[in-house]
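[Automated response] Your request has been received and processed.

Submitted sequence:
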Amino acid sequence: MCVVGDELCAGIGDPRGLGWVGRVIARTEFTAPTMTFTLPVPHETLGGLKERWESETALRFGHPDETDNRLIIASGRYDVDADISLARSRLHLAGIIDHALGQRIQPFVLGPPPGRARDGERIAELSRGLGDVCNRRNVPYVEVYEPLAQHEQWLADAARSRTGFPGQDGYGLIAWLVLHTRWRTWLGLTADDE
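Generated structure:
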C-alpha cells in the first residue's frame, strides 16, 4: 500500500509523529502482512502527483498477479494555492485513477482539508469536484473539507498551530474520517463500523 500526496501524508506538525496515516494503520487489523509506504512531496499539486506517482510506487508494488497493490491518494489543497482550474484538477485526478485501475491497483482518495479561511469556498469546490471524479469511477472518496471546516476541535487545533498544519487532534479527526469511509470495505475486511 502506497500513500501519495503532500506533507500531510507525513504527519508534519504532529508531535506524536503519527499523522493520519499512522493512526489509520494502527487502528486497522490486517488479515495478512501489509507494508505501507508514505511518499509525500511538500506543496504538491495533483499535476505534480500525476507525474511522479507511478515511478515511485513501481519501486514498492509487487506484480499484480502476486500482490494486492493499493494506492491512497491524498489530494491536498495546493491546487487552490497554485490557482489551478477545477477542470484541470479533476483531469489530473481522473488520469491517476484511470491509470491505476488499468494497472490493477486499487485507489482510495482523500479530499483536501480546510486551510486558510479566505480559500474556504475554493477548497470546498475542489473537494466536490474531486469527489465527483471518484463517484463516477466507484472509487472510495473521503470528504475531508466539509466535516472539518466548522468542526470545533479542528478549528481549535488550527488556532494552536504555529505552522498552519494540524496537530494531534487534527490528524486524529482525519484518521476518523478515513476509518469511517469505506476503508475496511476497500481493504476487503469487515465493515462493521462503516
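Summary generated for your ticket: The CA atoms of residues 83 and 122 lie 10 Å apart. The longest helix spans residues 86-102.
If you did not submit this request, please reply to this message.
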